[in-house]
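Sample entry (95 residues):
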Amino acid sequence: MKFSGVSLKDYLAAFGVKAQDIRLIALNDYSVDANVSELTGGNAILATRQNGQTMPVEDKGPVFLIFPFDSRNELQHQTYYSRSVWQLTEIEIVK
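Predicted structure, serialized as C-alpha coordinates:
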Protein backbone atom coordinates (compact mmCIF):
# COMPACT_ATOMS: atom_id res chain seq x y z
CA MET A 1 0.00 0.00 0.00
CA LYS A 2 1.16 3.49 -0.77
CA PHE A 3 0.02 6.41 1.37
CA SER A 4 0.37 10.02 0.26
CA GLY A 5 -0.34 13.41 1.74
CA VAL A 6 1.54 16.28 3.31
CA SER A 7 4.41 15.84 5.72
CA LEU A 8 3.54 16.72 9.30
CA LYS A 9 6.62 18.96 9.37
CA ASP A 10 5.36 21.01 6.40
CA TYR A 11 1.83 21.13 7.80
CA LEU A 12 2.95 22.49 11.17
CA ALA A 13 5.34 24.97 9.50
CA ALA A 14 2.53 26.29 7.27
CA PHE A 15 0.62 27.30 10.41
CA GLY A 16 3.69 28.55 12.27
CA VAL A 17 3.35 25.88 14.97
CA LYS A 18 6.45 25.67 17.13
CA ALA A 19 5.12 23.25 19.73
CA GLN A 20 7.25 20.63 21.44
CA ASP A 21 4.35 18.25 22.01
CA ILE A 22 1.01 17.73 20.31
CA ARG A 23 -2.03 15.58 20.97
CA LEU A 24 -3.43 13.52 18.10
CA ILE A 25 -7.15 12.81 18.43
CA ALA A 26 -9.11 10.31 16.33
CA LEU A 27 -12.78 10.12 15.47
CA ASN A 28 -13.28 7.32 18.03
CA ASP A 29 -11.73 9.53 20.78
CA TYR A 30 -8.41 7.64 20.73
CA SER A 31 -5.74 10.17 21.61
CA VAL A 32 -2.03 10.13 22.10
CA ASP A 33 0.45 12.81 23.08
CA ALA A 34 3.61 12.88 21.01
CA ASN A 35 6.82 14.83 20.74
CA VAL A 36 6.86 16.87 17.52
CA SER A 37 10.55 16.27 16.83
CA GLU A 38 10.00 12.52 17.21
CA LEU A 39 7.14 12.62 14.71
CA THR A 40 8.89 14.84 12.19
CA GLY A 41 12.17 12.95 12.64
CA GLY A 42 10.26 9.81 11.74
CA ASN A 43 8.98 11.51 8.55
CA ALA A 44 5.34 11.30 9.62
CA ILE A 45 2.83 12.26 6.96
CA LEU A 46 -0.79 13.27 7.15
CA ALA A 47 -2.00 10.84 4.54
CA THR A 48 -5.21 11.62 2.72
CA ARG A 49 -4.76 9.04 -0.04
CA GLN A 50 -4.12 5.32 -0.15
CA ASN A 51 -2.93 3.94 -3.49
CA GLY A 52 -3.93 7.24 -5.11
CA GLN A 53 -7.52 7.18 -3.81
CA THR A 54 -8.93 9.41 -1.09
CA MET A 55 -9.51 7.46 2.09
CA PRO A 56 -13.09 7.27 3.33
CA VAL A 57 -13.85 7.31 7.06
CA GLU A 58 -14.63 3.58 6.84
CA ASP A 59 -11.03 2.92 5.78
CA LYS A 60 -8.75 5.02 8.00
CA GLY A 61 -9.76 8.36 6.44
CA PRO A 62 -10.08 11.13 5.96
CA VAL A 63 -6.61 11.65 7.49
CA PHE A 64 -4.16 9.02 8.70
CA LEU A 65 -0.93 10.04 10.42
CA ILE A 66 1.52 7.37 9.36
CA PHE A 67 5.25 6.72 9.15
CA PRO A 68 7.33 5.10 6.37
CA PHE A 69 7.51 1.78 8.20
CA ASP A 70 8.62 -0.21 5.15
CA SER A 71 11.61 1.99 4.36
CA ARG A 72 12.83 2.63 7.92
CA ASN A 73 13.11 -0.44 10.12
CA GLU A 74 13.83 1.62 13.24
CA LEU A 75 10.27 2.92 13.07
CA GLN A 76 8.86 -0.58 13.48
CA HIS A 77 8.36 -0.13 17.20
CA GLN A 78 5.34 0.29 19.47
CA THR A 79 6.29 3.93 20.06
CA TYR A 80 5.60 4.75 16.42
CA TYR A 81 2.74 2.30 15.94
CA SER A 82 0.82 3.95 18.79
CA ARG A 83 1.26 7.34 17.12
CA SER A 84 -0.08 6.15 13.77
CA VAL A 85 -3.54 7.59 14.19
CA TRP A 86 -6.21 6.91 11.59
CA GLN A 87 -9.46 8.85 11.31
CA LEU A 88 -7.50 11.80 12.68
CA THR A 89 -9.84 14.67 13.51
CA GLU A 90 -7.79 17.03 15.68
CA ILE A 91 -4.25 18.06 16.43
CA GLU A 92 -3.92 19.98 19.70
CA ILE A 93 -0.87 21.82 20.95
CA VAL A 94 0.14 20.45 24.35
CA LYS A 95 3.25 22.58 24.94
